[in-house]
Amino acid sequence: MTGTGRDRYGRRTGAKPRPPKGLTLRRAPFGRGNACSRNNLSSALFSPNLPSITRSPKEYSTMADKFDVAGFNKNFIERAAQKPAIATAVVHPCSRDALLGAVEAAHENLIEPILVGPESKIKAIADENEIDISAYRIIDTPHSHASAAQAVALASKGEAEALMKGSLHTDEYMGAVIKKDAGLRTGRRVSHVFAMVDPEYPKPFFITDAAMNIKPDLAAKVDIAQNAIDLMIAISDVEITPKVAVLSAVETVNPAIQSTIDAACLSKMADRGQITNAIVDGPLAFDNAISLEAAKIKGISSVVSGDADILLTPDLESGNMLAKQLVLLGGATSSGIILGARIPIILTSRADGAQARIGSCAIAALMADARRNGRFPAL
Predict the structure, then answer these.
(1) How many CA atoms lie within 13 A of 57 on its CB side?
(2) 3-state secondary structure of 150
(3) Superfamily of segment(s) 83-186
(4) pTM, whole model, 2 decimals?
(5) Is residue 51 within 8 Å of 60, Cβ to Cβ?
(6) What's the pLDDT at 357?
C-alpha cells in the first residue's frame, strides 16, 4: 500500500515534478542550427533564403523561434485554393474522415470530388455525420476493389485529374494504379513523399519514400530522389534548388552498410548530372541532416547539413517510422502524395484526419497546375 498523497509507486502526487538541483530540463530543439522567426513567414512553400543562425538551446526555445505550423498550413492552402480546383476521384470514401476530408477540400476550392464507392454506404455515413454531399457526383460500386478500378478508369479517360485514397487499404488502391493496362504509369518509378511541417525545424521538408518502395536499390533511389526534387520545385512559388540529405545510420561510407554506399553514389551522381536541379549529399545521419550544430560537432562540412529540404531514407520502414514519430511525438503535420504517375495520386493513412487530407489535396492542386503550365517535367 502507498501512503496518502502518493501513487502506487510511492511518488508524490499533485506536486509538479522538479529536476535535481542544478539541472535544467529543456526540450531539445529539432533544428537549432537554423532558427526562423514566424514573423518572417511567407506564403512560399520552400524559401531558399532562410537564415542560418547558430543559437543556444535557451535562445531557440522561445516561442518566437518556433516555426508557425498553423500559419504556414493556412497560407499554403490559401495559395493552392487560388488555382483551379481539380476533378478528383475519391476512392471508396466509406469512413467519416475520408468523406469529410474530401468535402472540406472541396470547400477550400482545392478539388471537385467524384465519390466512387457503395452509394448507400457513402450516403449513410454522410447522414450519420451531417456531411452535405448533395453537390457531388457519386459513382456506385459494390466494393473497394471495384471502387479502385473505376476511379483509375476515370483518370485514364481524363475525367479525373487526380486520385484520392479513401478508406481502403493502400495495397488495393495502388494495385489498381500501377497495373500496366491502367494507363497511369510512366517511365519513372512511382514513389511516395510526405510533406512535413514541424515547429522545431525552420522550414517545411519532404520525407521519401515512406509508403511505396520497400527496399529500393540504387536505381530506384535515383527516381525517388528526382520525383521529390521535381515536386518541390514545381509547387514552390520561389526559385529553389532543393538540398537532399541521403540518410543512413552513420555519416561515413561503411561497406557493411549498403545505405551508406547508395548515399555516396547518389551524391556523386548528382555531381555528374544524373540527378538534376538539386544539391545531394550523403551519407548523413539524421542529426547532421537537420542540425548544423550536430554536423559541426562531428566535423562534417556540408551545405546540406542543418538545411535539408528533402530527407531520402534508406527504405520504407525507416521512412515510415521517421514520419510517424515526428507527427505523433514531435508535433509535426504531414501530407502525402504519390509521384511518378501521369496524375497526382493523393495517399494518406486511413488513420489520418481531415487536415492531413486537405493538405494533400493542396499539394495535388499545385502539382496539377504546374503540369498545365509546363512547370512540371513530362515523364
Answers:
(1) 8
(2) helix
(3) Isopropylmalate Dehydrogenase (3.40.718.10)
(4) 0.81
(5) no
(6) 84
